[in-house]
Each structure stands twice: as C-alpha cells, then as structure tokens.
Amino acid sequence: MNNAIEVRDVRKRYGDLEAVAGVSFEVAEGEVFGILGPNGAGKTTTLEMIEGLRQADSGSISLLGMSPWPRNAALLPRMGVQLQASAFFELLTAREQLQTFVDLYGMPNSRVDEMLDLVGLQDKAKVPAEKLSGGQVQRLSIACALVNDPDIVFLDEPTAALDPQARRNLWSVLMAINERGKTVILTTHHMDEAETLCDRVAIMDGGRILQLGPPAELIRRLGAPVRISVERAALTAERATEIEGADSVEIEATSTIIVTRTPARVLSALAQLDALAGLQVRGATLEDVFLELTGRAYRA
Amino acid sequence: MRGFRALAIVMVKAFYRDKMMLFFTVLFPLFFIVIFGVIFANPVQSKQSVIPVGEIAFLNQMPDDARAAFAQVFDLKPPQDLIAALDAVRKGEVAAALEQQGDELIVHISRADQVAAATVQGVLSSFVDTANLSIAGVPPTFSLQIAQVEDQSLRGVQYVAPGMISYGITVGATFGAAMTLLSWRQKKVLRRLRLAPVATVSVVGARVVVSVLVALLQLAIFLGVSMLPFLGLQLHGAWYMAIPLTIAGTLAFLAVGLLVGAVAKTAEGGSGLANLITLPMGFLSGAFIPLTAAPGWLVVVSKLMPMGYLVSGLSDVLVRGQGPAAALLPMGILLAFAVVVTLIATRLFKWDTA
Question: Is A128 buried (19+), middle (13-18) or exposed (0-12) by CB count in 10 A?
Fold first, then answer.
C-alpha cells in the first residue's frame, strides 16, 4: 500500500518553544491515524504543517507524493480539512454553509443533501450555523471537510467539548468515512476515541512522538496487570491472596480486587471457588499507556 | 471564478442579514436626509422683530411696494408704550423699538445683539433715504438688482444629501472590508479558504465587487429618497459623475477597512476602530455639518480626510452645478489614497490571529 502521508524529522520552533522537535511517521492510504497527546504536545502544529498551513523549520513532508508548502493548488482539491475552531461564514444556515463549500470546490449541488444526510443534519438544514449545538457544529464542519470527496481527511480534535452521546454519534460518522476508503488523520486527547477509531496512534508529548503503533499493541507493550474484581461477600481478602497468580489484592467498599499478570489462571481459580459474583475484568487502556509514557516516565 | 461567485453570495447575505450593518449604512443616513431635508425644506427668513411705540406715521405713509419690502425684513409687533418697548429691547425679545417724534424717526437698539442692531439700523436708514428722495422728487441714479447665484448657498436636502451619501458609502465600505477580514480571520474562515482551491484574487474581487454594488445601491436609494417631492432634491451638474466618484470612494474606504482589519485583533475591536475613524471623519469632512463657518485649522484638517473629497466631489456634481471635470481631482485623490492605504494594509496583514 502506498503512503498517503510521509513525515520526516519535522521541526517547528516558536521563539524559545520547540513546538515540534523532530517528528517522523507515515500514514498508509485508507488508514485512520491518530495523534494523541495532552494540550500543548505539538499535535495541532504537526497537523497544520502537513496541511500546508505552516512551514516546517526543517525536515520534509510529503502529502500524496507532493509537498504541501508553499500552498499547493494541486493538493487542495484532494484534501478535506476540519479545523479546530469550526470555520463558518457568518449569518448563513447549515445548508448555505455546505452550499458555499460545494461551490468553492466546484462540486455538483446534489452533494449538499448527500452531506446533510451523512452527518444527520437534514432537519437542521435551515438553522443558522450560530444556533447549532456543539455536536451539530462539529458534524457540520466535518461535512464541510468532506464535500469535495477528498482522498485525505484532516480532523483536528473533532470531538473536543462534546458530551459522550454526541461523541459517539460523531464516531459513527467518522467510521463511515473510513469505510469509504479515505485516509483520515486526526488529533485528539481522548484515549477512548483513539482506541475506538484509529488503526494506529502516535502518542506525542513535548513536541516528540513517544510511542507509535496500533492501540492494542501499545497496550500490550505496556505489560500492565489486569484488575479482576468480584463482590467482597463472595471472596475475602485472605482467600484472595491465596489464589495462585494474584500479584496483589485490594479491598474496596463492596469489592475485592485482584491484580494479576496471569488473568486466565486467576479466573479459573475464581470459578472453582464459585466466587464470580459481580465479576469485572479491566485490562490496561491507552490511558494507562499514556500515563506511563507522559506522567510517570517523563514527568515524575 | 467559481470561488468568486460563491464568496460574493456569502458577502451579500452577510450584508443584508446584518441588522446593524443595514442600520448604519442605509437607515441612519436616510434618517438624516429626511430630518434635515424636512427641517430646512423652506429656507427660514430670519426677520427682525420691531416694536413701534404708538403710531408711526412714517410707516403709514410708505407706498405699497416699500411696505411689502419692510414686511419681508421686519416682523412688526403690536404697538406698546415706550417703557414696555424699551424693556423688550433690553431683554432681547425684539431687535429694536421704533419711535417717531415729528419728522424724526428714533430707533432704540441694544448693543447686545450687534448683528440685529446693525441690520435694523442699516435697513431703516435705507427706507428713510428712499422716502427722502421720493419726497424730493429726485429719480434714483443707481438701482440694485438682486440675483441669486445657482445653489451657491446650499440649504436643506441640497446640502445634506451629498454628505449623507458620502457617509453611508464610507461606513459601508470600511465596515464591509474590516468585518469580512476580522470575522473571517477570527472564525478561521481565512485559514479554511487557504486550504480550499480558491485564488486570493477571487476573495478580494468578491469583496470589491460586492462593496461597489452596495455603494451604488446606497447612492440610488439616497438620491431616490432625496428627490421625493417632500424633500425636493434637485440635481444640478454632471450628476452621472457621482457613479465613478462613488466607486472611487468605495475603493478608498475598502482600503481603510482593510487596514482596520489588518491592525485590529477581534471583530469587536475592529468595529470600534472603524467607528472611531468614520464618525469623526464624518464631522470633520462636512458630511453632517457645513464647514463654511468652521475655523481655518479645521478646514485644513478636513483637507486631509479622504471623505472630505468625496463630500465636496459629490456636492459639486450633484447640486453645485459643476461639470464632469469637477469630479476628476477628488477621484484622483481617493484612488491614490486607496493605493497607499492598501499597500500599508498588505504589509500589516496576517492570515492568523496567532
């Protein structure tokens, strides 16, 4: 598969601050690639350099085999961009915003309704963009990013400041985009979002990529223990510590928690003890990977 | 050109959907045209009030035409006794008290209002002289013919219409350019457009064309309303030159708006700055009030204001009866101003707020 994006040792400095300090990665065609990191990690700057909004101080960026800087007119029709602040024209309705972008890209007018359907805003078509809810605004701005049927879609924090319900709605829109074979690169600081949506993620902090890979692999690499909890009534702390494979035991108000690196053995032991009431198994998440990388390893 | 068309539609909608914009560019100037036009529709003759003390035989003996002339200049109050009449003069209620003793006409005046006093004095002595000559039977050697020069003294709508047209155009163009730039930058529309296949010339072209069309529409509305019978604007001069003048003025103030948009950081700040420029300029350029009575330094200041050239250019070709050539100098100055300010604005321009 060809690479849609190739980034080689890219750096960007704002005064004393090295916002991006040597970043390299590739994104394959059809892949959903996430850049994950806390605020100020350099995610947006990296994305904007790939989009061609900012010039890298050094390093090279190739987008569909071309350089995005300076403004490359051959690339623009093939890119779909959703900026962090939803960029809308004043005093236009949702439909008119889309119509304007359809006209700017020279697409047929039928695209307006297609896009409204895709993001589920058909019933808000006549509402001024200023009066849409946060989730609707985000969906409209994603629709505007997709009008030209781009090969690469850039999404900068597409679900920032949304309630959980709205985020999940948006995720299904994003998954639908990916099913059409689009390459998607997005930034986020929501771990669950990256885990759900992305084929691969790059975890960034302080302008550098700390880890890069499929979310499941990053979690495995962490080698974090699994936490198994059952009802406290079903299992006392003493009996729990006797179970083979239990690294440690924690007692909470209503549950006994066994921390283990061999969950299969612990679970079968629990089954033999008939102590499975209220069973919950929680493995490591990307959140743990992130904390491990940014919090403990680099900031402690 | 497709970008041009789409953006022009966006700008037209932003203009007519923005209530504040419509108010300041259309309703506000119209309001002034109507108010001033109605107040000063009939030039007010400022007559001097005069109180006769008892019977004034001199007035009764005047021939009819002299009596009519007298009535045009003086408002003759009902006769009073001397004390009451002098009191009225003292209080400034009337310009003079008139008393006749035998063949002597006595005029009691107050030095408080010197202009009124001089007028009464001058006019009455001319009546006395005329009366003396006619009694002596001497035919007058010289005669005085009064001829009004075409609209040299502009009153009411003739004065206010060109001023308000200029003001409306100035506000429309300045705010149009500044607000497009600022709100588009603030809302990241500018960045989004950079990543769309739209040429800069389409963006700038759409703004210029929409602003010029808005300005010509303003010109048509303001002239149309001013020419309604109750206001009665009459065009004297090469009025069609108002069209190129309007376009030149629009370009000049688009440049000002561009500068405001480049300097200010937020739409709110830009709106304040644009007001800070256009409103004082309106006064200093004579758009609201005539500068004929203004001190010399103010006239010099007004010559530095581009709006002043728009005001005087428009009055020259609309109401002062000047030919097409009168518009050329103001147009040249406005266009030169547009070029210089655009160059400065381009140097200060930023795509992003950051």
Answer: middle
Q: How far is A215 from chain B (nearest CA, A)?
A: 30
Measure Cα distances from A286 to A32, A210, A223 in Å: 16, 13, 12
C-beta atoms of A52 and B189 within 8 A: no
| Nearest in space to B56 (alpha carbons), one of B80, B35, B75 | B80
Q: Are B249 and B334 in contact (CB under 8 A)?
A: yes
Helix (H) or strand (E) run with residue B97 in it? strand B96-101
What one-character DSSP code corresponds to residue A262? -
Cβ distance of A96 and B196 shorter than 8 Å: no
Q: Is B183 on the interface with A (CB under 8 A)?
A: yes
Model confidence pLDDT, tens digit, residues B14-55 = 999 989 889 989 999 999 888 888 877 655 556 788 888 888
Q: How many CB pairs under 8 A join A and B?
A: 69
* pLDDT tens, position by position, B282-307: 888 888 877 777 788 888 888 888 99
Q: How far apart are CA A70 and CA A68, in angstroms?
A: 6
CA distance to A90, A91, A97, A105, per residue, from A86 (Å): 12, 14, 11, 18
Contact: A81, B17; criterion CB under 8 Å? no
E-strand spans in chain A?
A: 3-14, 17-28, 32-36, 58-63, 79-82, 152-156, 183-188, 200-205, 208-213, 226-231, 246-251, 255-260, 280-282
User: How far is CA B200 from its chain centroid?
Assistant: 38
Beta-carbon contacts of A117 under 8 Å, excluding residues fewer than 6 positions away, are none
Record: contact A83-B13, CB cut-off 8 A:
no
Task: Work out the pLDDT band at B151, boundaries 50, 70, 90.
Answer: very low
β-bridge mates for residue A33, sequence order: A185, A200
How far A195 CA sits from the closest chain B CA (Å)? 28
Separation between Cα atoms, residue A155 and residue A198, nearest integer Å: 12
Mean pLDDT of chain B: 86
Structure tokens at A122: 């058909």
Separation between Cα atoms, residue A104 and residue A153, nearest integer Å: 17
Segment holding A46, helix H or strand E: helix A43-51
In contact, B192 and A140? CB cutoff 8 Å: no
- Helices then strands, each counted (H, E), chain A: 11, 13
The tokens for B175 are 């705010």
**pLDDT value, residue B152:** 44
> Do A85 and B194 lie within an 8 Å CB cutoff?
no
> Is the predicted pLDDT of residue B154 greater than 80, yes or no?
no
A52 in reach of chain B (CB within 8 A): yes
Which string of DSSP letters, residue by residue, matches B133-171? HHHHTPPPS--------TTSS--THHHHHHHHHHHHHHH
Global ipTM: 0.81
The residues pairing with B50 across neighbouring beta strands, listed in sequence order, are B76, B96
